[in-house]
Design a protein that fits this description.
The structure holds 3 protein chains of 3 kinds. By secondary structure, chain A is of the alpha/beta class. Helices cover 36% and strands 28% of the residues of chain A. Chain A contains 13 helices and 14 strands. A 6-stranded mixed beta sheet of chain A has the order 6-7-8-3-9-10, with helices on both faces. Chain B is mainly α. Chain B has one domain. By secondary structure, chain C is α/β, with parallel strands linked by helices. Helices cover 33% and strands 14% of the residues of chain C. In chain C, the strands form 5 sheets. Chain C has a 7-stranded mixed beta sheet with strand order 7-6-8-9-19-18-16, with helices on both faces. In chain C, helix 2 packs parallel to helix 5, helix 6 runs parallel beside helix 15 and helix 17 packs antiparallel against helix 18. The chains are: A alpha/beta, B mainly alpha, C alpha/beta. Chains A and C meet through strand 1, strand 2 and strand 4 of A and helix 18 of C.
């Protein structure tokens, strides 16, 4: 609608706005009252176990599936009111990268460019650019059914970016690629993320760390975590816990002392020998990093104990992921 | 309109970059000519009209229409490209119409391949050109109707074979509904059923048009049938997504 | 995530765009779909994609409907569908469609009603009161009523031919409408010795059926029979129609002349060899012995009149036309039976504009140029490949060996004259009298019994059965060929008229004296009439020529027409000389059969004879009358335009053109004319080759004849026999061979067309397809 398009420009920075989005397939709830906003310059990693509703959400964002409830706004344009205007702003790489097998790479890209409203020289330029960006020069006139999986993926990606969209929705863009190809794609995403709003879904957590400015974990159609990758890491249970191995006289009775430290919480896996103590000290709360370590260090120094191991756990996304999603799966 | 033509061009290229279209056209040509000349004994009829030629068409379309139309959406569903196509900034109906028109071009090419018989009747006698035209018009319309029916069925399934089988069955019923022996069988018990059979039968409409009688009823039926099937296609595509 | 979204978490999606795709939408669209189709199924509107507009009401019907200014009710009475035979059931819908069109064109006046006539119901009673009759228990008729006048279409399915697309229902309805709405019928004067109206035979025998042409004319015109001996034709006659006016007196010609000069319109169908007349002498069932009929001369002419108009009609020659020869089977066509092609038909006049497929049999042609003041317009003509031949060919039985020989001789000796001949033409303008000396004197009284032909037999010559049913039997078995035209003329003198009103005939000299030598006459073989199976009622047998002697096919090469030295001659009751019957209206259809007594020649009140036309006159002349006989004109299988042509002529002459355009629509057959040409070409080659062999046979014959003494002749005969036998065997073998070759040639040509059709385009497409696919493969494969 026009009034939405003529919103003040500062709001345009919010490229993807999803409000209370739900999707039911019969009695099954695939997406449950999900809200999300992605701004320009954000690369959002979309995480979740299989069947969590990632693909469904993305299909709704791209206008493929009509939502059961809620609203989707792309660059200020409502997807349900103005589907074609909204779709024009999106580049979409569907899961498994479907392609018309009977076309050539260049032919297919040209077809996509035409559907995106490009023609003539602009179309040609766009096709060339997409081919270069996705490293498809070698296969440009090849029939798609003769391509390897990596090329097919990149061809589909090229299709998604051919019209230089403001919003990119990528459903598992690195699925099935070899490590080198994965790297290429990640770099591409990172690069494009500077100027676009990108949502991409993945199972590979290091990918999120590598190129996302933000990560969202959903489970059973709901957002269970949302933040920068570091923030999320820290929210892992083990994040901030300190693993210590202390030797020296009296070390065996150290457990109690450790527990009494200001920032310390419970102690797990304590192993006490004659002159040594080994265990993991959890912080009382997720406070500033280093505080607990410092306290432990000070304690040892004060008592002249040898601190043979001191390691603060920085937190890992996969822990976080497992903790969040397995809880709900019970 | 622009979108329709883009989809149309792609679909057309898909037909002709594939052996499928050529094989289908050749089969149509050989079948329609062969039936007319060999089974229909065309040259012995001593009648410089194509009526008998056109009367074979509904039977051929019964299989030919589904064979052309089966890939329209089934293939798309199978390859997953529906998702690609429908997230492009185009309306589903534009894709449906574009695809349908491309299939109609294959149909038209098949009809064009029967031009020799027109030349033949003009060499051998002096036929009624208008009647030949109306025969071709009728033939094209019923062919397009079988394609439209198949189009709707193909939106339902990702298997081209099941699409083909279901569509052939439906088209078979539609052709048979007005076939004289069926009508004669129905008439004594339920005259209204025989009339209904005529009204919905592709065969009956074709037999009328083949002898130069283009009823408004026929035009209305065939065009609305096509429109309705295309509309059903969009309903099916949407409901599959919902 | 700062969003001012309304709190309603589960607000259903606003389906602004998608409502049409919901189930409610589907129901709505399906409803519209059904409604639209229901609406259009009620309408009979259509586009007519035929050149002849066969699916549209014609201009003639529109014109008739335009004139309708009182209420006309068209009632369709039809049995319930269950009671009808299956093949008639679809006709109901078609008829209703037509009636609907009539109603739509004049909705205020033309009312259409349909009654389903159950057995023993009120409807049945009502249908009965209109005059309709059930046929085999089935009702399917139409009654058209306007004021008190009602006209009937007694049996509607008769108007629907299963073989021809077009039907004659429109003509039936329109002529019916025209009949009930027009005030008074025009008068058609009919002069013919043929019994067009049919007759109920006395003594309880089966009569002759009424000719279809007579029925057609009768529905439109008031027919007034005029004797061929008349001396005056009433000027109230609107059109004068002469059909095979054999034996017309000079006085009657004078009467025609005067009628024409007075502004009358004359149509004359002449004939050099009239088939119906040729069979008129044959014994009939129900004819008591001794009541053998007289025969009508087979040739007719209007010599006096034609000469005055500048024309000549060769009354003893028939035209053989290879260009329009009618195919009788593979490699066999009859040049004496003409199927006129489009080139022979004038398209500039309404009479023949829309007509196709004329059939002529043993037809004569006209030569000459119009006398001053007259304009000629040729309506039908032969092809250039024609030749005038003796009428004796007409009598040959193509089934018998002699007949075959004769046809073969005709084929071989055929030399086309290279110019078209007139079969039918129109003369208009100021006519001058053919009798500048005034009224001719009446001829002296002749022996009685000249007239009284048994017209209306309407048989084709044997072997000329059309259509696949074979109801007319095999050509070869036919034996009663009407042979030797000359013979009958000698004989019929004494044959009494069987008609109820036999009258002394003035017996003028035969109009066509036969100049040919009678030497050819083979002794007429008398056929034993077997009362049991011999001549069935002609009504039941469309090819009665076959009937009499099917048992003896070969034995009667020349069964004479004439009842032979006939016992009838002796036993015939002498015709009462002074029968008053001429004063009474002759019994239906007996016109010409019972010539009136000699009219007093000097009528004191007679006006001064006209010397020249007072108004423009109009004359149509046609070289064949048999074309109107039922057997030729009423072919169900291959419809022709003969009858529409004749009625068109009458309409044109009577100035009533509306029905002309409707009637003309009966036939839209478009045969493969080129296949016929291919066949002709192939057979003409045979003809050339056989000609040389034939000459050799002639030579042997001549050789035998040239021998002086009996002895020499016998010797020559002996050796000649042998040679002849050899020769004829050789010819037969050769002919068989040639025919086979010709057949093969035709077949191979047609085969060529067939396989070109089936193979050519697929091969091209396969080539293009392969090329495209290979190029594409090369261009797009991985490298």
């Amino acid at each position: 609608m026009t009034n939405r398009q003529s919103r003040p420009s500062f709001q345009l920075a919010r490229m993807i706005e999803i409000h209370h989005l739900s999707k039911h397939f019969g009695p099954k709830v695939a997406v449950d009252n999900l809200s999300l906003t992605v701004q320009k310059g954000q690369v959002l990693g979309f995480l979740g176990p299989n069947g969590a509703g990632k693909s469904t959400t993305m299909r709704m964002i791209t206008g493929y599936l009509p939502p059961s409830a809620g609203s989707i706004t792309i660059g200020g344009v409502d997807m349900l009111d103005n589907p074609n205007t909204a779709k024009a702003k999106i580049g979409y790489l569907p899961e498994s990268a479907p392609l018309y097998a009977d076309m050539t790479v260049a032919g297919f890209l040209s077809f996509a460019a035409e559907l995106r409203g490009l023609s003539g020289a602009a179309k040609k330029a766009a096709v060339e650019k997409a081919i270069t960006t996705c490293f498809l020069e070698k296969v440009r006139s090849q029939s798609i059914d003769t391509l390897s999986k990596g090329y097919r993926h990149r061809t589909c990606l090229a299709q998604a970016i051919i019209h230089d969209p403001e919003v990119l929705i990528l459903d598992e863009p690195t699925d099935g690629l070899d490590p080198n190809q994965k790297d290429v794609v990640r770099n591409l995403i990172k690069e494009m993320g500077k100027t676009k709003a990108i949502i991409f879904s993945t199972h590979i957590l290091e990918e999120v760390e590598a190129c996302c400015t933000r990560a969202v974990i959903i489970d059973q159609g709901k957002v269970v975590a949302d933040g920068t990758p570091d923030e999320l890491k820290r929210r892992a249970l083990r994040a901030g816990s300190v693993h210590v191995k202390i030797t020296g006289p009296g070390a065996a009775s150290l457990a109690g002392d450790l527990a009494r430290l200001g920032h310390a919480g419970r102690i797990e896996d304590p192993v006490t020998a004659d002159d040594s103590f080994q265990g993991t000290v959890y912080p009382k709360a997720k406070t500033a990093t280093g505080a607990l370590t410092t306290e432990i260090y000070d304690l040892c120094r004060n008592r002249n104990l040898t601190l043979s191991e001191l390691h603060e756990e920085p937190g890992r996304l996969d822990d976080m992921f497992r903790e969040l999603t397995s809880q709900n799966q019970v | 309109m622009r979108h329709i033509s883009i989809i149309f061009k792609r679909e057309l290229a898909a037909y002709f970059n594939n052996p499928l279209a050529y094989v289908l056209i050749i089969i149509f040509s050989v079948l329609s000519m062969g039936l007319t000349f060999v089974i229909g004994k065309f040259l012995d009829l001593n009648d410089a009209s194509l009526t008998n030629f056109f009367l074979f068409h509904p039977w051929i379309y019964m299989i030919f229409g589904p064979a052309i139309g089966m890939r329209l959406w089934s293939e798309e569903h199978r390859m997953g490209t529906t998702e690609l196509l429908l997230t492009m900034p185009i309306s589903p109906w534009e894709a449906i119409v574009g695809k349908f028109l491309a299939a109609c071009v294959v149909l038209a090419a098949a009809l064009l391949s029967t031009i020799p018989i027109v030349v033949t009747v003009y060499i051998l006698g002096s036929p009624d050109g208008q009647m030949i035209f109306s025969g071709y018009l009728g033939s094209f319309l019923i062919g397009a109707a079988t394609i439209a029916i198949t189009c709707a069925i193909s939106a339902l399934t990702r298997s081209q074979i099941s699409c083909l089988l279901i569509s052939v069955f439906i088209c078979f019923l539609l052709v048979l509904a007005g076939f004289p022996s069926v009508a004669d069988f129905l008439r004594p018990t339920a005259p209204w059923l025989a009339d209904l059979g005529n009204a919905i039968s592709l065969w009956w409409h074709q037999s009328e048009m083949a002898r130069g009688l283009v009823r408004l009823q026929s035009l209305a039926y065939l065009t609305t049938l096509i429109a309705f099937c295309l509309y059903l296609t969009s309903v099916i595509i949407r409901s599959k997504r919902a | 995530m700062s969003t001012p979204t309304p709190p309603g978490d589960t607000t259903p999606v606003r389906a602004k765009r998608g409502w049409l795709l919901t189930s409610a939408g589907v129901a709505l669209v399906a409803g519209i779909f059904l409604a639209v189709n229901w609406f259009f199924s009620l309408s009979s509107a259509n586009l007519d994609f035929t050149e002849a507009r066969v699916h549209t009401l014609s201009a003639g019907t529109e014109s008739i409907l335009k004139r309708v200014d009182t209420d006309v009710t068209i009632k369709l009475y039809v049995s319930p569908e269950d009671d009808l035979m299956p093949q008639f059931r679809p006709v109901i819908g078609q008829v209703e469609g037509w009636l609907q069109r009539y109603h739509e064109l004049k909705p205020d006046f033309v009312k259409v009603q349909k009654f389903v006539v159950e057995r023993t119901s009120e409807e049945e009673q009502e249908a009965g009161t209109t005059g309709l009759q059930p046929q085999q228990g089935m009702w399917f008729g139409i009654a058209i009523t306007c004021l008190e006048k009602t006209t009937l279409i007694p049996w509607v399915p008769a108007l629907f031919s299963p073989f021809v697309d077009e039907d004659r229902i429109e003509f039936g309805l329109s002529s019916g409408l025209s009949e009930v709405t027009s005030a008074k019928k025009k008068v058609l004067g009919l002069m013919s010795p043929l019994k067009l109206a049919g007759d109920a035979m006395p003594f309880g025998g089966g009569g002759q059926p009424t000719w279809a042409i007579y029925e057609m004319l009768k529905s439109q015109y008031e027919i007034k029979n005029i004797e061929l001996t008349t001396t005056k034709i009433d000027p109230t006659v609107d059109v004068l129609l002469l059909l095979h006016p054999a034996g017309i007196t000079d006085e009657a010609q004078w009467a025609v002349d005067q009628y024409l000069l007075g502004g009358g319109h004359v149509i004359a169908f002449l004939d050099p060899y009239n088939l119906v007349a040729s069979q008129s002498g044959q014994p009939q069932r129900g004819m008591p012995p001794g009541m053998s009929p007289g025969a009508i001369p087979t040739s007719s002419n209007l010599e006096k009149l034609l000469t005055a108009w500048g024309y000549n009609f060769e009354g003893d020659k028939i035209v053989a036309d290879m260009g329009y020869a009618t195919p009788m089977g593979p490699n066999n066509s009859n040049p004496l039976l003409l199927t006129l092609g489009t080139e022979g038909i004038d398209r500039s006049t309404d009479i023949t504009k829309q007509l196709n497929d004329f059939w002529f049999i043993f037809s004569g042609t006209f030569t000459g140029t119009p006398a001053s003041g007259l304009t000629e317009k040729i309506l039908l003509k032969t092809s250039v490949k024609n030749q005038m031949v003796e009428t004796s060919y007409a009598s040959a039985n193509p089934g018998s060996p002699s007949g075959q020989q004769q046809m073969a001789r005709l084929n071989r000796s055929f030399r086309p004259e290279g110019k078209e001949r007139i079969l039918a033409f129109e003369l208009t303008g100021k006519f001058k009298t053919a009798f500048p000396e005034g009224k001719p004197a009446p001829p002296p009284p002749a022996p009685p019994g000249q007239g009284g032909g048994m017209g209306g037999m309407g048989g084709l010559p044997p072997g000329m059965n059309f259509g696949p049913q074979g109801e007319a039997g095999e050509p070869g078995t036919a034996a009663t060929a009407p042979v030797e035209v000359k013979a009958p003329e000698a004989a019929p003198a004494g044959s009494p008229a069987p008609a109820p009103a036999p009258a002394p005939a003035p017996a003028p000299a035969p109009a066509v004296p036969s100049p040919a030598t009678p030497s050819v006459v083979t002794p007429p073989v008398t056929i034993e009439p077997k009362p049991a199976d011999a001549p069935a009622t002609p009504a039941a047998n469309p090819a009665p020529a076959l009937t009499p002697a099917t048992a003896t096919p070969e034995a009667n090469p020349a069964p004479a027409l004439t009842p032979a030295p006939d016992p009838a001659l002796g036993n015939a009751p002498p015709a009462p000389a002074a029968d008053p019957s001429p004063l009474l209206p002759p019994p239906a259809g007996a016109a010409g059969a019972t010539p009136p007594p000699v009219a007093p020649s000097g009528d004191p009140n007679a006006p001064v004879p006209l010397k020249e036309s007072t108004k423009d006159g109009m004359v149509f002349l046609v070289g064949d009358t048999d074309m109107l006989a039922d057997i030729l004109a009423q072919q169900q299988i291959l419809q022709n335009s003969n009858l529409p042509f004749a009625v068109n002529l009458v309409d044109q002459a009577a100035g009533d053109k509306d029905l002309m355009s409707i009637r003309s629509r009966g036939s839209a057959r478009r045969p493969f004319s080129t296949i016929k040409m291919i066949r002709d070409e192939a057979t003409s080659k045979i003809r050339d080759q056989l000609k040389s062999m034939d000459e050799e046979v002639e030579k042997i014959n001549a050789d035998i004849a040239s021998q002086k003494t009996n002895k020499d002749r016998n010797i020559a005969l002996m050796s000649g026999w042998k040679k002849m036998e050899e020769k004829s065997r050789e010819i037969a073998a050769r002919k068989y061979q040639l025919e086979k070759e010709a057949n093969k040639e035709v077949k191979s040509k047609l085969n060529f067309y067939q396989w070109m059709n089936i193979i050519l385009v697929p091969a091209i497409i396969a080539g293009i397809g392969l090329l495209v696919l290979i190029i594409r493969k090369l261009k797009t494969s991985a490298r």
